[in-house]
Amino acid sequence: MPPLDPLPLAASASNLLAAREQMAFTLGFHIVLSCLGVALPATILVANYIGLKKGDEAAIELAKRWSKAMAVTFAVGAVTGTVLTFEFGLLWPHFEQRFGAAFGVAFAIEGIFFFLEAIFLAVYIYGWKRLSGWAHFWSGVPMFVTGIGGAFAVVAANSWMNQPQGFTLDAAGKVVDVEPLKVLFNPATPYEVPHMILAAYMVVGFLVASIYATGMLKGRRDRLHRLGLLIPLTIGLIATPIQLFVGDTAAREVADHQPAKFAGMECIQETGTDQTEYLGGICTHHGVEGAIGIPGLDSFLVGFSTHTKVTGLNSIPADERPPANTLLHLAFDAMVGIGTGLLALGAWFAFAWWKRRDIPQTPWFLRIVALTGAAAILALWCGWIVTEVGRQPWIVQGYMRTSEAVTEAGGIWFTLALVLLLYATIGTIAILVLRSMSRRWREGGADPEAGAPYAPATEAPS
Amino acid sequence: MSKADAAAGILWVGATFYALFGGADFGGGVWDLVAGGPERGERPRALIQRSLTPVWEANHVWLIFVLVVLWTAFPEAFSAIFTTLYVPLTLAALGIVLRGSGFAFRKSIEGLQGRRAMGAAFAVSSLVTPFFMGTVVGAIAAGHVPAQGDGDAFSTWLAPLPLLIGAMFVATSAYLAGVFLVGDARRGGDEEMERYFERRALGAGVVAGALAVAGLVALHSEARYVFDRLTSQGLPLVVLSLLCGAALLVVLRRGGRRPLRPLAAAAVVAVIWGWGIAQFPYLLPTSLRIDQAAAPDPTLTIVFIVFAVAAVLVLPSLGLLYTLAQRDLLESEH
Fold first, then answer.
1. Residue A324: is its pLDDT beyond 90?
2. Complex ipTM, two decimals?
3. B226 partner at 20 to 30 Å CA-CA among A26, A273, A306, B295?
């Protein structure tokens, strides 16, 4: 196994590692919340719609509860997203300095979507009591549109980092001309953007479903739990087959345009035809150890023929190979594996529903659904590891190395430690808060939100 | 006016909105911090909570807008600022996280202890965050940020002018919040809270004014270029700000029911644009001019389009949100 990031022991190299870890950690934290921001509105609106259309009080109650939970997750998402904005300057100032004029465009557009989402989310979340049913429902529809628009803009920026285009550099490497549409609609946009939006719907669908599956396993089998399971599970299961198709296309595009990343994630050492597809295992310079190998399959998946030539790491200059191939490879396999498992779950569910208009009766179904939330988040993280670590050593593929972008500022290890501590605390409290909200709803007890911030609940004015 | 100047104007518009509305939200946290124990602070905190809840996230987006426009339209300035002032910027970013999470958690967490801890995180970071943002602005205005970046990590902002501007940001936020909360109390027919925040707005206004005067003195010695222009080209705006501020103090002292918010907002807006005029044509006085820092033309065009879309879509939506909030159609409890 090659060592992780063979860095010289210079100060900037130490900064590079710290900055990458901090970026990875803060992005990994935020991305879960941003999935909730992208896909939870639609999930809530579906429940709201069913509730209004059929006069179903359980569906309305679900929409209310989910929007209260969203108030918490959106707040944390807004501030952790702001941290990422700061980190562009705090960790990667030279990236912005050189390319801000080119890819900043995508973030400027994202700004508009985020603005509108924040506004209509507030109107929807806090409009339950005083806005009338359908007016309230429609006030929430912009959240759904802006969530998708915002995801498009942010992921287009990331796509551009993978397949940059739409700018002209002068002799000094300064951006002198920009074609904004080419930046936004770069070759990676058509697969990265839908891949991420579908991922958001899968994360939200399975995460919410897993919470209600857990409740049902504890014997709560009322209509509220049934709907709370069915609505998000259906959304997640519809997204899954589309996602596998998009992901499969994406992998082929990566093989074409970012062969180093593809060789890293599939652990291909030697360029050639008839490449073996390895499932699992540890990457070494001589090939994969401890993996299940399927001869020719990798070539077949890339070009629908075992004769397809696939680039191996030996064709990539040593200083342009992605680091940590085992991590990349296992992350890729885990993502695909989880996706495939969820597809199978969907087939099982669809069959049972077609037979008896009900979920499968065995408790194993609920047990598995209860795990899908964590599984979907794991797959999401794995996908981002493949995208981001696989692009290394580049921050802008072919144009700028991550090591050229990193700050020379001191104290990055210190801020990393601070951020780890702060985020761990916030993450823990967020989960505790959501759990206690859920417990209060179940017990139908007094809602502490009704009182002043510090007043004991019993003395709170109504 | 060149395209680059127009882009700088957009940056200033964003900064103005953030200072007014984001600033008032921070100020709400400052008043929460000094509201006293659970019993004594119950009513002001309830009012602050009601006022902030539906709007603070939308108001916060102006900061993202400013940062994004800065790095898109003026990437060199962005990089110079962030490689020099990373210490206060990091502290401000951490403050933003604590403020937002603390505020979101405190109303939903169980137990008085938990709520007090979350409330403290919210309130303390509401004071600390604008302070560090102010030191950043002060260091830029003072000309301590070199165009090529990598200025000294500490001496650039641990200087009289940046520290004074930091304190002024806190006082101004508190002043704006005080004035806004007077209006909210009035609307709710709560005369006691109306008087409560009138007194506090008055006090914060006096402190902000005193800090502004001290800032002028520091400006005179630390940032001569900005001082000279502020007292010539920028003078009408300085005078306008003084007049609005003074008029508001008189109205507050008399305790009348005249509208306060436009005066308070005008006083703050005049200072922000006075500062802009004073450091024109520099983005980083006096090492980086606006035209030197500007991105290529097509990028600036996109920034204009984005701004136009924001004006057409975001401003009316914000108007809707504020209108609904002011008519008490949005409630944090249900």
1. no
2. 0.94
3. B295
| Number of domains within chain A | 2
- Asked if pLDDT for residue B65 goes beyond 50, the answer is yes
CATH for the stretch B3-302+322-326: 1.20.1630
- The sign one gets for the Cα dihedral A348, A350, A353, A359 is positive
Q: Which domain holds residue A78?
A: 37-186
Which residues numbered 94-123 in A keep a CB inside 8 Å of some CB on B?
A: 94, 96-102, 104-105, 107-112, 114-116, 118-123
Are both A179 and A247 inside the same structural domain?
no
Domain end among A409, A427, A457: A409
Same domain, residue pair A158 and A252? no
Domain endpoint, select from A409, A439, A457: A409
Same-domain pairing of A263 and A397: yes
A162 and A247 housed in the same domain: no
Per-residue pLDDT, B206: 93
**Residue A128 is assigned to a structural domain of this protein:** yes
Sorted by sequence, the CB contacts under 8 Å of residue B41 that are 6+ apart come out as A454, B32, B35
Under an 8 A CB cutoff, do B150 and A128 touch? no
* Residue A423 falls inside a structural domain: no
Asked whether residue A416 is assigned to any structural domain, the reply reads no
Tell me, yes or no, whether A160 and A247 share the same domain.
no
Question: Does one domain contain both A251 and A156?
Answer: no
Residues 42-81 on B with a CB inside 8 Å of A are: 42-43, 45-46, 49, 53-55, 57-58, 60-61, 63-65, 67-69, 71-73, 75-76, 78-79, 81
Q: Are residues A181 and A245 in the same domain?
A: no
- Judged by CB atoms closer than 8 Å, whether chains meet at A453 and B119 is answered as yes
Structural domain spans, chain B: 3-302+322-326
- Residues comprising chain A, all counted: 462
Rounded CA-CA distance A48/A63 in Å is 5
pLDDT of B46 above 70: yes
